[in-house]
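For the sake of clarity, the format in which proteins appear in this thesis is described at this point. The fold follows as a row of integers, each naming the local backbone shape at the matching residue. One such record is shown here in full, so that the layout can be seen directly:
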Amino acid sequence: ILRNDLTDVNDSDPALPITFELYQNYPNPFNPSTTIKYSLPTDSRVTLKVYNVLGQIVQVLTDEVQSAGYRSATWTATGVASGLYFYRLDAVSLVEPTRSFSQVRKAILVK
């Protein structure tokens, strides 16, 4: 018997993101905490920092190597004033160090 079955081969894991991405925090405006989500298509060295309007670091949420996937961090803004803040994600692929990502978004704290 001759069989000619075709099999669809998909090398990519659908559970893994295709691109680096930094999402808008939720809720925004927030009080007292907010969630920041981001995606990593490859294992990466990741830093996620919160800055005030003067560009000073308010808090480091993540500074470590993380595996590929969808991630989130929670910022609990105790001891800081109401106002506009920025959060910045920097990620460098461990597999391809020339593949890096950096993005900044705004968050508003209302007390």
Q: What stands out?
A: The first strand starts at residue 21 and ends at 22. The radius of gyration is 19 Å.
